[in-house]
Design goal:
This protein is mainly alpha-helical. It is built from 13 helices and no strands.
Length: 294
């Protein structure tokens, strides 16, 4: 029986190693394509290793380092601030809904969940954010509109319900109020689910571009994703003009297109891949423990 268990374990490890390789290889191909020559990529196609290393795509992206650096700073600010505020307000709302003595629990639950069934749409939200809240050309337009998420509230609320009530009762006997119980006990015991919410929120804020397209007009406030998208659209328009007006060719014939797309993927996703291992140990535990009960 012990030999069978070892063989089974070996096969399981081999399967997951193979599965991990299948997941990693596409990103390796993207990195290889971003470092390849444009003509070589068109003729020979994609490969795991670049045939000749060419930094032209990255030179186009970092042609103005101050612009890219500013976009990174903007994205970093909205990611950190948005993640902190989302985790804080989500935890506060979920804690209130998880407490049985909260009298307005049913009413607040209805108010929170009703917009998931019937939404006002894009036009009312744009009018409120731009004309009433005056968030146009402000970084808060990328943070405040999506500061809470119903799915995160459900997940954190379910996690709070699984905490022993004896802890809260003992804290109240010792004279602790609700704020002290929330910050000292509830939050300290909810690191897995809060880390999960933080990672998912940070991922969404890092990839923010749609709200920037709606509310941001100042180029100095462009986040990284929207800046890369605007750069790609400009290059595509130039390449389209080159096909319709052959006289415009010349120095622009070497302008990359496909390799530039791959380089943008690497520039945009690289930092999040670095931070993911720090959240990995909490991610699975937070997702499973926060979704056991309804």
């Amino acid at each position: 029986m012990e030999v069978k268990k070892e063989k089974t374990s070996l096969w399981i490890h081999a399967f997951f190693i193979l599965f991990a390789a299948i997941c990693i290889i596409p990103f390796i191909i993207v990195i290889s394509a971003s470092l390849s020559n444009e003509k070589d990529l068109i003729i020979n196609g994609y490969s795991v290793l670049p045939r000749t290393i060419d930094w032209t795509a990255y030179m186009y992206i970092f042609k103005n380092p101050s612009v890219i650096g500013n976009a990174y700073l903007v994205t970093l600010f909205i990611t950190v601030a948005g993640t902190f505020l989302t985790v804080l307000f989500t935890a506060m709302m979920a804690y209130a809904l998880s407490r049985p003595q909260f009298k307005l629990k049913k009413a607040m639950t209805f108010i929170i969940f009703f917009p998931t069934l019937f939404s006002g749409g894009l036009v009312p939200s744009y009018i409120i954010n731009s004309q009433y809240l005056h968030l146009t050309d402000s970084l808060w337009a990328l943070i405040l509109p999506g500061i809470t998420n119903v799915f995160y509230i459900i997940m954190v609320r379910t996690f709070f319900k699984q905490l022993p009530d004896g802890l809260f009762e003992a804290a109240k006997i010792d004279g602790a109020n609700e704020y002290r119980i929330f910050f000292r006990i509830a939050l300290s015991l909810s690191k897995p689910v809060l880390a999960t919410v933080a990672f998912l929120t940070a991922l969404g804020k890092w990839n923010e571009w749609y709200s920037a397209m709606l509310y941001i007009r100042n180029p100095d406030l462009y986040p990284l994703q929207y800046l890369l998208q605007s750069m790609m659209l400009k290059i595509q328009s130039v390449l389209k003009m080159m096909t319709t007006a052959p006289s415009m060719t010349g120095s622009m014939t070497s302008m990359p297109s496909e390799t530039l797309r791959m380089a943008m993927v690497v520039v945009a996703t690289g930092p999040m891949l670095i931070f993911f291992p720090f959240f990995q140990k909490y991610f699975t535990k937070g997702m499973t423990m926060g979704s056991i009960k309804g």
